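Subject: Protein record for review, amino acid sequence with backbone structure tokens
Why sent: The fold of this protein is of interest and is recorded here as tokens.
Notation: Tokens come from a learned vocabulary of local backbone shapes, not from coordinates.
Attached in line: The record itself begins immediately under this heading.
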Amino acid sequence: MDKGVMSYRQAGVDIDAADRSVDMIKQLVGRTMRPEVIGGIGSFGGMFALDTAKYRQPVLVSGTDGVGTKLKIAQMLDRHDSVGIDLVAMCVNDILAQGAEPLFFLDYIALGKLVPEQVAALVAGVAEGCVQAGCALLGGETAEMPGFYGENEYDLAGFAVGVVERHRLIDGAKLKDGDVLLGLPSSGIHSNGYSLVRKVLLENEGLSLTEQPEGLKRPLGEELLTPTRIYVPLILELLQAVSISGMAHITGGGITENLQRILPPGLGAMIDESRIDVPAVFHLIEKRGRVPRAEMYRTFNMGVGFIVALPPAEAEKAASLLQSKAEKCMVLGKISKQVNKVVIT
């Protein structure tokens, strides 16, 4: 039986739409350029000339991550211009924790139906995140995958590369008993724990994304879509001013698991919970879901997005610098040889 002439478009993949989306994002990518970038958009590979005069023993630090089920919130609200910031933040904050300056970023967008305007909105967020982090958006891939994703579904993945001088690499090896732990506030939930958030607030409690539950200062959807904070400019400035022993990006697993990752054998960390300024959205999740406090701390950042460990004298200098920039910080506790894990009291 003659089924007629078939095309890729009839199978659900629109190459013309992909070409239009590339045209729409060229200007967005241009915002992120650094002098080291060679060539422009459209090559088979992104090219970046490392400034060898700037580094004596450069170490490249790489990281990759996604946004997780926070994307469901964006898709439910049909708002796609901020999750790209989350994507960049999750990657650059990770490599920053080792002292690396982010150099360039690549993204991957997989979706059920390619709508150029939606792709442009997603890339606009990625570009904004790169601008905040000071890195170039060097390349990316958009994959239209009908039958694998629903028409209104997509997923994001990101990849960051940074550089740090070998002798300035921060891996926790310099941590000592008595080092002070400074916490930098998160902007909210960031990009972790959204499966629990959706289960508690949307499924079990039946809350609407447009309503404003008790304690929140804005509608629930806006609260949940608040982009992950990018700490790059602030931490790079701190690295120039003070001696930092260790750093941790607080993502999935919360303070306890992420801080544990940088602790050398024989040292633990003692955190005073009363020093943490917990945002209202976490109280809402805990109360409505009857989530145990320990579970909250091992799932969410609880208001602390990044932790810096410093010797006491350096901690005072860092706190003064942050205060001069109107930046909040929390003196969370200290590194201690009396415990061998992260203890929140």
User: Anything to note?
Assistant: The two ends are 74 Å apart (CA to CA). The chain has a mean pLDDT of 94.
